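User: Can you predict the 3D structure for this chain?
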Amino acid sequence: MIAFSLLLALATLLVGLGLAFVASRMPRMWAQVATLALAAIALPLGSVMVGGALMLNSGHDITVLAALIAAALAALVGVWLIGRRLLAPVHALQRATARISSGDLSARTPEIGPREMRELGSAFNAMAAHLEELQDARTQLVAWASHDLRAPLASLQAMLEAVEDGVAPPERYLPAMSEQVRALGDLVDDLFELARLDAGSLTLELRNVPVTPLVESCVRGVEAEAHARGVRIVSAVPEQLPDVICAPDKVERVLYNLVTNALRHTPTDGAVALRVESEADHVLVSVEDTGEGLSHEALGRMFDHFWRGDRARVRDGARAGLGLAIARGLIEAHGGDIWAENRSDGGARISFTLPAAAV
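Assistant: Here is the predicted structure, written as structure tokens:
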């Protein structure tokens, strides 16, 4: 009898392993679940029935068999309910994936089912939202780049046609044409820099550099513009500051972008200040102005590609809306952070951090 029991157990194990292998090779998840459910129910039931038929010979056989069948049916219903709960979010995720692959980036999947499936749905929705934001940014990039390239090109074409038709002598338009060419060159350089930042292919030549010369160079570079606008520009740099680990030319570009941007938004008789502080393992640099401050939209979007708070920035000779986006990319490439906020006593403040060199 013991030998028979062991043989029956071994046969049940082999059949179960065979069914598990078959289920694992099935192409659809619902088929795998159904096969495993049937195997989990049929194998114990079959084993008990075979053993009972050979070993039992009493009036209770039918009672035992009925109990086993009832238990098997209850298990089958339970497996069907659980499988349905598992497969519902999978089917929803499948439909949302198909919509995104067809170009509908607004597709989302309901976050339903067990916790693991809800977490998967949440991660999928976050990915879809990010893809939609990237697509919107790409669309805006193409639109703004086309606009900012079209304006100087149209101006150049008009001046060339005037010269070709003999309406004006060449020397009349040469300075303006040179200025438009420089504007086109600056825009192309900005686009190339931004593309390298987005691709993560920008190479920085980092070294230990004192902050004070960088601030002084920036102040000298904007003094003439500040004087023409009637805006005071001041700097507050402590004497004892650790060096920073940076690429000096890139940090100078960031400072120049932030200061010139602050000058454009500061009224006559206002002031722009550069402040530097040492904090723990980094150095904090802030550019403050006494302008009208930043709107809620500006606080959330001013570092986006091609974003302009108002059209006055374009009329006022501002760049193509890439300066702050490039500034953010350059600072983050250094391992620092950059953010904007409104000052409590009016005006705006843009701050960024750079890693401090080891003393």
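The first strand starts at residue 207 and ends at 209. Residues 137-199 form a domain with the Helix Hairpins fold (CATH 1.10.287.130).
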